[in-house]
Design goal:
The structure is a homodimer.
Chain A lengths: L17 H22 L2 E7 L5 H12 L5 E7 L4 H8 L3 E6 L8 H7 L14 E5 L16 E7 L6 H4 L1 H5 L3 E5 L12 H11 L5 E3 L8 H12 L9
Parallel strand pairs in A: 1-4, 1-5, 2-3, 2-4, 5-6, 6-7
Helix pairs in contact in A: 1-4, 2-3, 2-8
Chain lengths: 239, 239
């Protein structure tokens, strides 16, 4: 009986298909990972809140590389191909994945997108493949997409408490990019130090880059990080 | 066969329990709605991205009301009770709902929280009950929580394209609060007009308030909106 109103508890459907669906995704992700490894493609899962600056970051990286690496990307959104169009203009061969109502990308969606030969992933004609996930600081974290590493983008405008409130995402991050740092002078109480401190409370080891896609601050460090990832003996990461 | 690599398609688990779970939630939400209606409580589902400024907005409303209305709230987060603590300090009787890994609140979680007598909802000793949802611009939109209306908070720092990319959420909004407008001078290309234009492309009729919790701009309009909602003949909304 419910204490509030004395009503009987409503019976809930509680079929546990979640584990099964995730197991399915893991199998498809392992298959994707084979594609990436065989082709020598560094696949990166780029996650963060809506408006954290994921697309702006990738545009800035592409422009700063000036064609030195072959970049391609898929961009996930519920609707529109706006991000893929922006990336394409910045020199990243891009395809949009429109999810309809889904809050994350899964391995099947990414695998289907690889059928677009322009991306060059299947043929190994791509150096870095960015998987720009749906803007969401929760759900994308638990779907393996065969990536070599996770980049989580966190903008300073979101406040300093986000690592504590969304620990699942940050625990999965190989790199946290603190974005929009050019806005820091207008945000009292927000600092990269305070963010780093909160990240350290949820992540075993924090690797972070403070970046502004507007001023270019941090871009060189991010490109150097990319190069280090490419130089790793295997592009396979523990998941 | 997969064109990319010639592999056979992996069989997917495709049990459709989603509709069933939502049906279950709808029944619990209807029950919650009875609580709210019977108690004369205006229940509002406050949604938006992580860091959109949901808590800051509720704090500002509470301070501006100066005790004229009895306010209570639940705050959903994966971890921590930080938001509930902030609201409590602002004069809102508050309880935290920590979801663990869940990306949204459901009607059962809210109903369970009402067992906290301090909230005063079950006893009708509350005028406005804020349900501050998990920061997420996708999933919370589809879970009815018995609310009379939905407030979606969208910060100017998220950029102008969010209504187009997350239409499901904005279609469900009764009121869109454009937050952090004090930062507009530092965000080239972002304006309330551009946001309104994009909202109009996905919402049948747009009601929006441009607000800054820092300067107080828009607070009076938001309080007036709250009063109009309270004056509606029935607090029941079509879902």
């Amino acid at each position: 009986m419910c204490d509030v109103c004395g009503c009987g508890d409503v019976r809930r459907v509680s079929i546990d298909v979640h584990a099964s669906l995730l197991g399915d995704n893991d199998r498809e992700a392992a298959h994707l990972r084979e594609h990436f490894t065989r082709g020598g493609v560094l696949a990166l899962n780029v996650m963060g809140s809506p408006g954290a600056g994921k697309t702006a970051l990738l545009e800035a990286v592409a422009r700063s590389l000036e064609g030195r690496l072959r970049l391609s990307a898929v961009s996930g959104d519920l609707a529109t191909a706006l991000d893929a169009e922006r990336l394409e203009r910045a020199g990243v061969v891009s395809a949009a994945i429109t999810t309809g109502s889904a809050c994350h990308l899964d391995a099947r969606m990414v695998h289907d997108a690889l059928h677009d030969d322009r991306l060059g992933v299947a043929a190994g004609e791509c150096d870095v493949f960015f998987i720009e996930n749906v803007g969401n600081l929760v759900c994308p974290a638990i779907y393996d997409l065969g990536q070599a590493a996770n980049i989580v983008v966190l903008s300073v405008t979101e406040g300093v408490d986000k690592p504590l409130k969304y620990p699942v995402m940050f625990r999965k991050a190989d790199l946290v990019v603190i974005s929009k740092v050019d806005l820091l002078p207008h945000l009292p109480g927000v600092s990269v130090e305070a963010l780093a401190e909160n990240l350290a409370r949820v992540m075993p080891s924090v690797e972070l880059i403070a970046l502004s896609a507007t001023t270019g601050q941090g871009l060189a460090a991010l490109v150097a990080w990319l190069e280090r990832q490419r130089a790793r003996p295997a592009l396979i990461r523990r998941v």
